[in-house]
Design brief:
The chain is 17% helix and 11% strand. With 83 residues, it is α+β, with helices and mostly antiparallel strands. A 3-stranded antiparallel β-sheet has the order 1-2-3, with no helix packed on it. The radius of gyration is 19 Å and the shape is extended.
Length: 83
C-alpha cells in the first residue's frame, strides 16, 4: 500500500508523484476513505477459514492444513536499520 502525505493529496500532486514513480495505464486517484474498507467491501474475498495457532509450537493451521514458509534468504535494509 502506498501512503501519500495528506498535504500532497490535498494539493492534488499525489497523483502526479505516483505517476512519475510508476507509469501505469489506469488512471490514479487519491482516496481519503480507504480506512473504512472492510471485509464486506471485498467482493472476491468471501472465503473465511478457521485459523488456529498453537501457542506452544507456533504452528499455524488454516482449516486444519499447516501453514509453512521458508526463511528469507535476503532482507532489504529499511529505515529501522539506521536507527
Amino acid at each position: 500500500m502506498l501512503r501519500l502525505a495528506e498535504s500532497a493529496r490535498q494539493s492534488g500532486q499525489a497523483t502526479t508523484a505516483v505517476a512519475e514513480l510508476w507509469p501505469l495505464v489506469a488512471r490514479l486517484e487519491a482516496r481519503a476513505t480507504v480506512r473504512t474498507i472492510g471485509p464486506a467491501d471485498m467482493v472476491r474475498n468471501t472465503r473465511l477459514g478457521e485459523i488456529l495457532v498453537d501457542p506452544r509450537h507456533g504452528l499455524a493451521t488454516l482449516d486444519g492444513t499447516p501453514l509453512r514458509s521458508e526463511p528469507a534468504q535476503d532482507v532489504a535494509l529499511n529505515r529501522l536499520y539506521f536507527l
